[in-house]
Amino acid sequence: MNAIQPASKSGTLASYIPALLDADPEAFGCVIYKGESFIEAGRTKDRFTLQSVSKIVSLALALMDQGEEQVFSRVGMEPTGNPFHTIQALEKEKPSKPLNPMINAGALVVTSLLEGNSGEETIGRFLAFLHELTGNPSIHICEKTAASERKHADLNRSLCYFLKSHGVLKGDVEGTLDIYINQCSVLMTCRDLARIGSIIGNEGRDPETGRGILPPRIAKIITTFMVTCGMYNASGSFAIKAGIPAKSGVSGALLGCLPDGTGIGVYSPPLDEKGNSAAGVRLLETLSEKYDLSIFSSQNRV
Ligand code: DON
Question: pTM above 0.85?
């Protein structure tokens, strides 16, 4: 960790959600979890918001709620070379559906597909699902971050209205946006992230109890999106250098998973130019190289 920490100096804190500027740029923590054992290093007690890591959780829930056919009739499966908040591709695609569920446009459509009779009920279901995935019933929303994002959500708002005008996003734009902002503002620790990663890597089963939390097919879909789109327009180079299915968030959160059921949670807030945690990326690349963790290594192919 000490050798990697300087990598964070090349990054900057996300500023378009002002509350994220409260983060300590020096914070750096990592938890690796498998079965019942945790390996922890650095500031693993720090809490941070989930941000885009929430996109894999909402996708899993939407797939359970609506099924694959419904979800993928509204959002694509293709990676993109564009940044995560791009609106550009929506104009080019006919029909105008977002390229994948990991970019903001796609994630907003996914959120609009979550079941619930009210916004409150939907976010309540999202939180309950997170409680199951993490085994941590105390997980809750950071109201300050949510309020901050709400005030600076014009780009996401315009993505929603664009998608609504093309019939891709159904229902109430402001309601969908509010659920999305809340899901991005859930507070977590590296330990929580590592547990989620472990369940995804373990084909959806809780590694301690063996209980199925996600259907294996959905765990497989999520893992595939993590490889192809989880690090945005750095997903290709990250797949080559680390080969670890991963999902990043602008808070500096990074979740990884391995096919043997190992989950990895990393937190370091300064971001590289693609919006991924600079030190987090370096840490996963280094661990992968040292312990030959790439899922593309012949010894790791299942
Ligand atoms: O919607 C947004 O822009 C943020 N709430 C989440 C974006 C994000 O985390 C992108 N990740 N690197």
Answer: yes
